Amino acid sequence: MEAKLHRQKAQSDLRRGLMLDAARRVFERLGIEGGSIREIAKEAGYTAGAIYSYFENKEAIYGALLAETLERLHATVAAAGTANQAPADRLEAKASAWFGFFADSPRDLDLGFYLVQGMRPRGLTTELNHQLNDRLLDALRPCETALQSMGLNADDALRENTALFAHGMGLLLLKHTGRIRMFGQDATLLFDAYLISLVERLQKRPG
Amino acid sequence: MEAKLHRQKAQSDLRRGLMLDAARRVFERLGIEGGSIREIAKEAGYTAGAIYSYFENKEAIYGALLAETLERLHATVAAAGTANQAPADRLEAKASAWFGFFADSPRDLDLGFYLVQGMRPRGLTTELNHQLNDRLLDALRPCETALQSMGLNADDALRENTALFAHGMGLLLLKHTGRIRMFGQDATLLFDAYLISLVERLQKRPG
Amino acid sequence: MEAKLHRQKAQSDLRRGLMLDAARRVFERLGIEGGSIREIAKEAGYTAGAIYSYFENKEAIYGALLAETLERLHATVAAAGTANQAPADRLEAKASAWFGFFADSPRDLDLGFYLVQGMRPRGLTTELNHQLNDRLLDALRPCETALQSMGLNADDALRENTALFAHGMGLLLLKHTGRIRMFGQDATLLFDAYLISLVERLQKRPG
Amino acid sequence: MEAKLHRQKAQSDLRRGLMLDAARRVFERLGIEGGSIREIAKEAGYTAGAIYSYFENKEAIYGALLAETLERLHATVAAAGTANQAPADRLEAKASAWFGFFADSPRDLDLGFYLVQGMRPRGLTTELNHQLNDRLLDALRPCETALQSMGLNADDALRENTALFAHGMGLLLLKHTGRIRMFGQDATLLFDAYLISLVERLQKRPG
DNA sequence: AATGAATGAGCCTTCATTCAT
DNA sequence: CATGAATGAAGGCTCATTCAT
After folding, report:
1. What is the pLDDT of residues C85-99, one digit of tens each?
2. What are the backbone dihedrals phi and psi of residue C121, each rounded to the nearest 5 degrees, phi first?
3. B49 touches strand F (CB under 7 A)
4. Which of residues 23-62 of A touch B (CB under 8 A)?
5. Contact A163 B190 (CB under 8 A)
6. Whole-number Å distance, CA B39 to C1' F9?
7. How far is the CA of D49 from the C1' of E2 (A)?
8. DSSP code at position A122
9. Is the pLDDT of residue B85 over 80?
10. Mutate which: D162, D175, D205, vs C, most C CBs within 10 A
């Protein structure tokens, strides 16, 4: 009996996952406002109605997708670097981890950008927004910790971490839109350069 | 005869401009995906159909709006700073100009983001894309020139300018999303800090 | 110019009227909850979207239909009877007028009944409801006046008028549902009988 | 074997009854058009599919519910009054019984109305219609008998009973709509008044 | 007998776009 | 040029119903 329930639950989760995958593919193809429930369903091999057995809303799909992305981001950053690294090396390892995560997976990046635009008016409850923000902060925390290990106090570490994140995001944006190629530059190289000069700057700090 | 044609052309351009103004107001009010042709027409005092005498497409409106934005951006940056400033001061003045332009006018920023994500299918032809890119580069050129005046060669100046642009865009993105507030930071302060450390770094360069 | 506007307005009103007619036919055929915008449009020879140029939403159609019905009812009752009739005769004329109106036009009756059921949850604002009620009271007022002319005070006249209306409505309900045929009776005969005994009762009153 | 079958039948009937109860509760809560099969199933502790083991259709549920309503109506009227009452008193008791039944339980009334209007297509077969009509006539028969006891012949008794039923139904309709409140009247008071003047009229009859 | 998955038709509504006038 | 009418495709969503398990 229990085994049966277990199997059913697993199958259900599997199908939900397949639908999320389909949704990601659709959003990549048609843009995030352009992707419709019908299209997602078709991509997943279902009818529109079937989606509603697994997600309450269209927004619920965004939410699940985002949560999943952040989860993987978190795991990726957590796994980066080695145990007994120098703080500066750890910073580079961790920061490169999240940058690489988004650079390699434009779908995830797209979804992240979506937060910027379409989702404000309707969906994305304040609660969910905070929740997602916390997960993002969690994922970036290792960089902050490394910055503190390098001698920054809490405030300064948060500030530098924010600047670091912004820098990376800006580069990813340019990369994603093809602008960076038009500038004749490479996003990853520029990110590395930023990291290097950041470390340098911190190490030259008085005291 | 010719005078008459001239007058007609002027009137037509005027009306087109009024429609663009209306579009901007509508997008301001309803967001960029939320604004409909009908709404824009009504705001401009016309019927939906009339719009099509001036614009081929809805996407064409976005394009025209963005071109106009870039024009204003260009002018804003060009006007910033004074004639005989030290290069470092000029850099700060010019960079702050474009950053401030977008920080103060989120809808212009929105428009830029939208074009990237929503307009793929028909709207954004490769040609238009290049054209817009060139205008953007034009607008950012003063910063690049300033960087060269500070002793960088052409390649390095372009690289630093790209990084600077990316940094600012990343910050604007975070600001726009409200994320930056959740990080407890201020976008403009961070941008200024970046500028200061950039100048410092360049001035400490050997040779 | 003005003539043109006039003609356009007239045409527009005409089309709106045709749509309302179609709506009535559809509601008669499919029931009032069963009638969809699509069906109404098709019946009128349009696409669903076209309806929305003339009515803001589905409820607005109900509202317009009801208002129109009440208007015709009002006119019908007002026109009934002659100027210098005896009060009792006038009562019979006026009452028979509204009864006949509904008896002859089941569509209108159906719509009236609709108020009973489906429309409570959603549409039918309290305001519209009051408005419609007032129109109904207006239409029935001539009977009330006649009752007063027969010697009843205001309260009694209102009470008797309400009872009279209820009696007629009950009969119309039975007629409409075919029940009355199963009872082997005729609605109009029964209504006349009620009127006769009402008059008789009032005339036998002391005082 | 037979005992087992018997037990199974009893259980089945029980569950069917529980589902009908659930349906009634759901209709009470959401209105008769607003209640869905899913909702009814959930209320009864089942899944939507399970309903179809007990009812062929959604309309079949309405039918069963209405049959049950008529059954209860019948019982209510049968139980009203006492054995050796004067015919006039018995008439009043019996009539008040069915009127009170519907006045106190608007959803039963709703159900009756619904069958008439919404169920045309498949649900209400001619046969079922006749069947329901017979049950209704059965329920009203005691009033007819009382009328005959008061001296009316069969035809007149049926006619008066029909009028009485119509009068009550009309009042219930107005009460149900809230119209009667707008008229400033009370349905039960008006029904009692009708009964009183009916009795009076019959007793004053010549012969 | 009951479940849970899925369907398919339908619902109201919005909107860019076309076109005769 | 501008209008007003109309289209047709699409959107999110609901729901009675079927069916394998």
Report:
1. 999 999 999 999 999
2. -55, -60
3. yes
4. 31-34
5. yes
6. 20
7. 8
8. S
9. yes
10. D162
| Tokens 């549902």 found at | C177
pLDDT digits over A36-56, tens only? 999 999 999 999 999 999 999
* Rounded distance in angstroms from the CA atom of residue C51 to the C1' atom of nucleotide F6: 10
Any C CB within 8 A of D206 CB: no
DSSP secondary structure string for all residues of D106-143? HHHHHHHHHHHHH-TTTT--HHHHHHHHHHHHHHHHHH
pLDDT at D4: 75
Which residue from A110, A137, A170 is facing B170, i.e. has the nearest CB?
Answer: A170
Q: Average pLDDT for residues B84-88, to the nearest whole number?
A: 93
Tokens of C27: 């509601």
- pLDDT for A116 equals 53
Specify the range with the lowest mean pLDDT, choosing from A20-24, B168-172, C62-66. Answer: C62-66
Asked if the model's pLDDT at residue D6 lies above 90, the reply is: no
CA A154 – CA A145 distance, rounded (Å): 9
Which of A177-181, C22-26, D90-94 is predicted with the least confidence, judged by mean pLDDT?
A177-181
Radius of gyration of chain B (CA): 20
How many CB atoms are closer than 10 A to CB B183? 20
Output the average pLDDT for chain D: 90
What's the mean pLDDT in B35-46? 96
Do residue B31 and residue A121 have CB atoms under 8 angstroms apart? Answer: yes
Task: Give B89's contacts (C-beta < 8 A, 6+ positions apart).
Answer: B81
Residues of B in contact with A144 (CB under 8 A): none
Structure tokens at D187: 């349905």
Between residues A32 and A62, which one has the greater pLDDT?
Answer: A62
Minimum mean pLDDT range among B153-162, D105-114, D192-201? D105-114
Q: Which domains does chain B have, with CATH numbers?
A: 1-55 (1.10.10.60), 58-203 (1.10.357.10)
- CB proximity B58–strand F (7 Å threshold): no
D26: closest CA of chain C, how far (Å):
14
- Are the beta carbons of C174 and D165 separated by less than 8 Å? yes
The answer to whether the CB of D37 falls within 8 A of the CB of D27 is no
Q: What is the DSSP letter of D206?
A: -
Selection from D158, A184, D25, D22 nearest residue B137 by Cα: A184
* A49: CB within 7 A of chain F nucleic strand: yes
Q: Do residue B133 and residue A182 have CB atoms under 8 angstroms apart?
A: yes
Contact A140, B179 (CB under 8 A): no
**Digit-coded pLDDT (tens) for D118-136:** 555 455 667 777 888 889 9
Between B109 and C124, the more confident residue is B109
Element (H, E) at D189: helix D187-203
Return the exposure string of B70-91: e unless at least 16 CB atoms fall within 10 Å of the residue's CB, then b: beebbebbeebbeeebebbebb
Instruction: Please name which of B145, B69, B82 lies closest in space to residue B109, comparing C-alpha atoms.
Output: B69
Provide the pLDDT for residue B194: 98
pLDDT at B1 over 70: no
Partner-chain contact B179 A136, CB within 8 Å: yes
* Residue C76 CB partners (closer than 8 Å, separation 6+): C97, C98, C100, C101
Q: How confident is the model at residue A145 (pLDDT cuts 50, 70, 90)?
A: very high
Using CA atoms, how far residue C62 sits from B3, C45, C49, D174, in Å, is 57, 19, 17, 19
Contact C206/D at CB under 8 A:
no
Two tokens, residue A193? 């350069």
Q: Give the pTM.
A: 0.88
